[in-house]
Amino acid sequence: MFSVHNTVNDDTIKNIYKLACEIYGSDVANPPTLLKSWHSRNENIFWVALNEHNEVVGYITALPLTEEAFKLTLRTDFDQHKLTSDQIKPYKGPGNYQIYFTSIVVRPDYRKKQPSLSRLLRNEFLKSLVSLGDRGIHVTDLSAQVITVMGGHAMRTLGLDYVQDGEHGKVYHGKVDASLLKSLIRDPIKSKL
């Protein structure tokens, strides 16, 4: 069994990096110093799945960005390793927010388990966005640069569309609102993803 948390510490961040290295390789994984820098600007950027041994078996990293930084994520030459903490937007008050997915990862040996771990992670992420909306913090756009077929499928299940090929992956983007976010929350037992 596993549980999903939105609170992380330095050890969790190191384990997120370790899992990213296993899946993507160290040249693609965001280093712990960068993850910590982003986290220092906004503590609500991680959704982490832990197994019964408190091992990180999956996670989502999603960054609310300034409008200028978000526009960069839609360019073919965008490199997420160059995002600075100043480009992260804290959830400080009412307004519109745009979120960029840096990664959605599920450890391979947990991908076919039921209930669906990726669906649980996405549900917790979506519930967080709905809760933010109740406080006047409205997410209007989501984007990602995807490097795997499964990542592309995950983005489509979140309402994002393929835009173009980029230097570091396929660019996805989608306009969202509260009703769409609520409609995307699915039963993790009835879903593969």
Number of helices: 6
- Please summarize the sheet with the most strands: 7 strands, mixed
Strand line-up of the largest beta sheet: 1-2-3-4-5-7-6
What integer value in Å does the Rg equal? 15 Å
Strand tally is: 7
Total domain units: 1
The class by helix and strand makeup works out as: alpha+beta
* Topology-level CATH name: Aminopeptidase
Query: Strand fraction band?
Result: 25-35%
Taking the alpha carbons of the first and last residues, their distance comes to 17 Å
Give the fraction of residues assigned to helices. Answer: 25-40%
What is the fourth-level CATH superfamily? Gcn5-related N-acetyltransferase (GNAT)
CATH architecture: 3-Layer(aba) Sandwich
Q: What string gives the helices and strands in order? A: EHHEEHEHEHEEH
By CATH reckoning, the class would read: Alpha Beta
Shape descriptor reads: globular
Compute the average pLDDT.
92
Low-confidence stretches: none
